Amino acid sequence: MMVSLKREREAEVDDDDSEDGVVAKIGRGRVAEDRRSRHCPYLDTINRSVLDFDFEKLCSISLSHINVYACLICGKYFQGRGLKSHAYTHSVQFTHHVFLNLHTLKFYCLPDNYEIIDSSLEDITYVLKPTFTKQHIAGLDKQGKLYRAYDGTTYLPGIVGLNNIKANDYANVVLQAFSNVPPLRNYFLEEENYRGIRRPPGDIMFLLVQRFGELMRKLWNPRNFKAHVSPHEMLQAVVLCSKKNFQITKQGDAVDFMTWFLNALHGALGGTKKKPSIITKAFQGSMRIFSKKLPHPDLPPEEKEALLVTEEYQEQMSESTFLFLTLDLPTAPLYKDEKEQLIIPQVPLFNILGKFTGSTEKEYKTYKENFLKRFQLTKLPPYLIFCIKRFTKNNFFVEKNPTIVNFPITELASGMKCRTCR
To answer: How many angstroms separate the Cα of 332 from the Cα of each of 322, 396, 400?
Structure first.
């Protein structure tokens, strides 16, 4: 450990000392630019097709994240640019001369060690760190223009594929869905919205906000080199902040991940039960929950009637908030049709939304007690998330309900208000 720290410090010193090769001091306070900076002969060796800035910014040799440079010829990451650094050695060994500092976004020529200043390299820095103006963000929903990536493929910003590294598809669907919610998208596309949020020392949860913002800007980047994005850094933040409850190499449940992700983002953005955040402003609604305790089914009828009169078994009403609604499907038919095929039923969305009208009761069993509950929505959020429960688990296997839900394209909002918020 001491050796690695010593090497990192040496790399920092080498990197600082090497700045003398970039500029020459003339007199007091005057700095002259190296003439080679604007006439680098190696710019034509840059290979944009191998550049990929979606992965963690670590040196490929020392695994250090300090003073990391990207080789623009082979795409690998190396530490430092001093005489003893890995980037310097790589430039001499493989005659790769153009490097980009992944933190300062400055270009350098090695081993000559001078800064490269050229406007033709601006597209590379934009792919590494996309930026959006307020005018650009305001016009995102007004245009459906297709863009062409450097590799020749066409894509629509925001509708970009996320790489499935191993078993992270359950997280990809959630991230892609949230990237197309306009208030959430507009908030994270502009880094100034959350940069000033102060968190306690040692708090790692804000890393989730930073990585989600970076991923959002990459998904909506109109100048990508490729028509897909790897959520590698975002998922590493998820693994770290969730204490490995959600992993890249292990399949997870999308609803569980979405629940944790929404609450984690809300807390990291400084939100509480009383203090709102962009998460609660977009997704939080409210409902009334009517709950009535049921007597034990094995009790004699006389005891049941006596208990139902007591205050403990009367209906209780409570107010609650929600970020999404879980919808139950009707049970699938057991019998086959005349062609010996299972019937796949269809149900309108409004039918399964009847759970939240306040008139439909359902029994909920716990380990000790049973309750009869009904729900009534009192406030709809601007963006409503439905989770249709298709999978049920028994002692032997997980069963999927194949029922088709007919989702109306128009007049959904008015139908929801009429049926649930009466």
So the answer is: 28, 18, 9
Q: Is the pLDDT of residue 20 over 60?
A: no
CATH number at 2-126: 3.30.40.10
Same fold, 130-281 and 284-420: yes
Q: Are 381 and 283 contacting, i.e. CB atoms less than 8 angstroms apart?
A: yes
CA distance 344 to 346: 7
Pick left, alpha or beta for residue 105 (phi over 0 → left; psi -120 to 50 → alpha; otherwise beta): left
Lowest mean pLDDT among 20-24, 130-134, 176-180, 220-224: 20-24
Domain segments of the chain: what residues? 2-126, 130-281, 284-420
CATH top-level class of 130-281: alpha beta
Q: H or E element: which one contains 99? A: strand 98-101
Torsion sign across C-alpha atoms 392, 396, 400, 403: negative
369-422 confidence digits (pLDDT tens): 888 999 999 999 999 999 998 888 878 888 888 899 998 877 666 555 555 444
Spatial separation of the C-alpha atoms in residues 206 and 237, rounded to whole Å: 10
How does pLDDT run across 81-125, given as a tens digit for each residue?
999 999 999 999 999 999 999 999 999 999 999 999 999 999 999
Tell me the three state secondary structure of residue 263: helix
* In contact, 117 and 34? CB cutoff 8 Å: no
What is the residue-wise DSSP string for 353-412?
A: GGGGBS---EEEE-SS-EEEEEEEEEE--SSPPEEEE-EEE-SS-EEE--PEEE--SSSH
**Residue 187 CB: number of other CB atoms within 10 A?**
20
CA dihedral sign, ordered 61, 65, 67, 72: positive
CATH superfamily of 284-420: Cysteine proteinases (3.90.70.10)
For 306, the enclosing helix (H) or strand (E) is: helix 301-309
CB-based contact 303:295 (threshold 8 Å): yes
pTM comes to 0.85
Q: How far apart are CA 155 and CA 110, in angstroms?
A: 35
Q: Which two tokens stand for residue 193?
A: 């919205």
